[in-house]
Write a structure and sequence with these properties.
about 200 residues; about 60% helix; two-stranded antiparallel ribbon
């Protein structure tokens, strides 16, 4: 297994590396940029900002990269996410934690976990109450070493190539965007509406 610090550094990358391209101001032009959206409020016209279009494009592109990585390794998206989560958080993850982290339905995660268990990669241990914790078997550890850790190493190397200053800026802007966006979605009275307040 990789050291905990390596897991911490890669945990944010999966959701946020697309900000790198945004920071470097990579342009993207297509007919999609001409699309306009109308609201029913006084005929007001709403247009997506160019930055938002780039952001959305890179977000979906990142999804595709991880989807293809899973396929190349002979894994479904959900199985890949489960194994990745165990690498990141260690043995003993709970099903509901993985479902929450990767925004996958409990049913999807449950079905995939059961399949991995039948294949001999995972086992369950009882926790407090009805809680069940997921652990890798010896075969599961070998699978992770072959399929998951090389990808995590590649993610680490991306941060190395970016350097400390750009990596910190990537995370700073990503966290700022997420706080502001969460405040917009959840309402102005949410704690995230005031990111600078302690």
């Amino acid at each position: 297994m990789q050291p905990e610090s390596a897991c911490h550094r890669t945990s944010i990358l999966r959701c946020l590396i697309f900000f790198t391209y945004w920071i470097l101001d990579i342009s993207m032009k297509s007919d999609y940029n001409k699309i306009r959206f109308h609201t029913q409020e006084a005929g007001k016209m709403i247009r997506q900002r160019e930055e938002l279009k780039k952001f959305n494009h890179i977000y979906h592109e990142m999804d595709e990269v991880y989807h293809n990585a899973a396929l190349q390794r002979g894994l479904s998206d959900s199985a890949f996410s489960i194994l990745y989560a165990i690498c990141e958080y260690g043995d003993g993850c709970r099903q509901k934690d993985i479902s929450r982290i990767f925004c996958l339905s409990k049913q999807t995660i449950h079905s995939s976990i059961c399949k991995l268990e039948r294949e001999g990669y995972l086992t369950f241990r009882s926790g407090k109450g009805r809680s069940r914790h997921i652990y890798l078997t010896n075969a599961g550890r070998q699978l992770v070493e072959e399929k998951i850790w090389p990808l995590i190493q590649a993610e680490n190397e991306v941060f190395d190539l970016m350097g400390e200053e750009e990596s910190r800026e990537l995370l700073r802007l990503s966290e700022k965007y997420m706080k502001l966006f969460r405040a917009k979605v959840n309402g102005p009275d949410s704690p995230a509406a005031h990111p600078d307040e302690k």
